[in-house]
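User: Can you recover a sequence for this backbone? Please restate the input before giving your answer.

Assistant: Of course. Working from this structure:
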């Protein structure tokens, strides 16, 4: 296809694809278009697509790509002949085939921290919704004075800790990559092992990424060890849960609750057998706020412009 030249500087115009099966809020999409218009780039929006074929076609001639949880497989990377950069507007990049990107010389980035508050607010919201009996008018319980364990003290974990403290909860955290002092200075108690965290806290809020080490790591033993009223809140990834173990605990413990933004494979079985102890969102929506979309979407657009104009590779993950 013939290259289009920018009227601003007569350099070949960069073409950027924003491929979002779950679209950004309109205000964020407009902001992204504005960032690229100011840079003299062409932008193409592919929203709510249902077929991978549409993604493969749209990516064929673009220089840059913005995605959310969209799957950037090796097939996508290989179909994108001009691609130099893909930015995941969000934190987790387990949906990008990093090896395929590296092999093709494509830089992959994320936008850490930009949507974290939205996810944290949802985690607390799920807890409130559950303990106040889905707002059905019956008597519930309170968060005050209860123990919450933050499993991974990154951007989202820190926001959850701050909000939980506001609710008067006792906050604990486990994260082998964060210094004890950095956890303590937030008024949070560091816990040195995962098993200790689960044994100690009635509530666990999960914020670990999905990778070879963490997949299925939240297992029967951990969940079984949680105190009375044990409640696992998952706004991270479904793959980190050992679903067999979770089902076993749900069966053995009538007090145990599972609240998740990521529908498990065993969703139908759980809803059928344990209604009242499970909450699932209609669709992954932790980061689905205008603010988070604006923060992450605009950050992604600006990172792409900086990469092309200045060679800036901050936030590269491959
Ligand atoms: C993330 O990794 O940033 C979150 O899981 C949000 O994902 P989303 O952009 O698909 O909502």
């Amino acid at each position: 296809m013939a290259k289009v030249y920018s009227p601003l500087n007569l350099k070949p115009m960069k073409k950027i694809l924003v491929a979002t099966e779950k679209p950004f809020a309109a205000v964020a999409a407009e902001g992204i278009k504005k960032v690229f218009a100011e840079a003299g780039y062409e932008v193409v929006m592919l929203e709510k697509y249902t077929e991978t074929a549409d993604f493969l076609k749209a990516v064929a001639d673009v220089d840059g790509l913005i995605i959310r949880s969209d799957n950037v497989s090796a097939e996508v990377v290989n179909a994108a002949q001009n691609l130099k950069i893909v930015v995941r507007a969000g934190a987790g990049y387990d949906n990008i085939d990093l090896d395929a990107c590296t092999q093709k010389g494509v830089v992959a980035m994320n936008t850490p921290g930009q949507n974290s508050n939205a996810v944290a607010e949802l985690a607390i919201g799920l807890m409130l919704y559950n303990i106040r009996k889905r707002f059905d008018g019956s008597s519930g319980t309170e968060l005050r004075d209860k123990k919450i364990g933050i499993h991974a003290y990154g951007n989202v974990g820190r926001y959850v800790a701050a909000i939980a403290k506001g609710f008067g909860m006792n906050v604990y955290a486990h994260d082998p990559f964060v210094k004890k002092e950095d956890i303590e200075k937030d008024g949070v108690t560091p816990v040195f092992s995962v098993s200790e965290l689960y044994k100690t806290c009635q509530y666990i809020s999960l914020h670990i990424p999905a990778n070879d080490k963490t997949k299925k790591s939240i297992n029967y033993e951990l969940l079984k060890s949680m105190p009375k009223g044990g409640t696992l809140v998952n706004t991270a990834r479904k793959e980190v849960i050992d679903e067999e173990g979770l089902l076993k605990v749900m069966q053995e413990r009538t007090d145990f609750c599972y609240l998740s933004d990521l529908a498990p494979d065993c969703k139908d079985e759980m809803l059928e057998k344990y209604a009242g102890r499970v909450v699932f969102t209609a669709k992954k929506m932790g980061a689905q706020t205008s603010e988070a979309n604006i923060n992450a979407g605009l950050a992604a657009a600006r990172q792409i412009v900086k990469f092309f104009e200045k060679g800036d590779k901050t936030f590269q993950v491959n």
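That completes the design. The CA atoms of residues 37 and 43 lie 8 Å apart.
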